[in-house]
From TrEMBL:
Keywords: Monooxygenase, Oxidoreductase. Residues 5-94 form the ABM domain. GO terms for molecular function: monooxygenase activity. This is Antibiotic biosynthesis monooxygenase. SUPFAM superfamilies: Dimeric alpha+beta barrel. The lineage of its organism: Bacteria, Bacillati, Actinomycetota, Actinomycetes, Kitasatosporales. It holds the Pfam family ABM.
Length: 106
């Protein structure tokens, strides 16, 4: 059984590169959300204690979808402007094995 996947990128943005990084993310986010098979959503987060530390999390239908996207030339081309702002990046991959969501107000 294939499980949904969560991918976490822990990244460091070069000092002064924050605006360029966010602008690059803004330019590509709708293309990824609407055009990459298996992509369910993502978030960009900034550390509250270390302004140079950022995190991108994304959720995928399954890990295979993410790995196919990450290996593609289209991916490398699309994310190049974001990567240009990074001084360090690390990728972590997880399979979702359990989940709890808030109950919607009725």
């Amino acid at each position: 059984m294939e499980r949904r996947a969560r991918v976490v990128f822990l990244i460091r943005i070069a000092p002064g590169g924050e605006e360029d990084f966010l602008a690059a993310y803004e330019r590509i986010r709708h293309q990824v959300a609407g055009g990459v098979p298996g992509h369910l959503g993502d978030q960009v987060c900034r550390s509250t204690t270390d302004p140079g530390q950022w995190m991108i999390t994304s959720e995928w239908r399954d890990l295979r979808c993410f790995e196919e996207w990450e290996a593609s030339a289209a991916h490398r081309e699309l994310v190049a402007p974001m990567r240009a702002c990074m001084t360090d990046a690390r990728s972590l991959r997880f399979a979702v094995v359990a989940e709890t969501a808030a109950e919607s107000a009725a």
